[in-house]
Design goal:
Blueprint (H helix, E strand, L loop, with lengths): L2 H25 L5 E4 L1 H7 L1 H38 L5 H54 L4 E4 L11 H7 L3
Parallel strand pairs: 1-2
Helix pairs in contact: 2-3, 2-5, 3-4, 4-5
Length: about 170
Amino acid sequence: MTGLTRKVTLLTFFLAFTLISGVALADKTPAKIGIVDVQRALFSIPAGKAAKKKLERATKKKKKALKAKQAKAQRMQAELEKQAALLQEDAKRRKYREWQRLMVEIQEGAVAAERSLKEKEAKLFGPILKKLEATIKSVALKQGYSLVLERAIYAAPSIDLTDAVIASYGK
């Protein structure tokens, strides 16, 4: 974490704490702060596990297709290097352009695959995260928390709501 990022994070936490403390003093009730490890909760619930597996399968499929094209490009390059001395200039240029087109196709394919996977990730995890957020809010309200933060460098186990959120998800 860079110095600036750390300062901003600490300032944000301080401001949130001050705001909650002020509200608590006005209510004359102590502010209760909790934390949730959203990533751990997400990958612990059945819906999150299933979405992760789907995304991993899609990633593996796209990588396999990309590797096949990369192998073809490597074979073309090796062939071009072997035949360079024997080929006429026109034939050499034609093969080189063909190899370059394949390399561009591979790069474009990699960018498209990455974009597609990000879209799939959003589609798979978006609804789950919305429901998880509602579960976090429900658990926090039931247990009387004024503020719930995502993760912390250190937090006492007594304020970690992650297990309660996992247990409450989908109920």
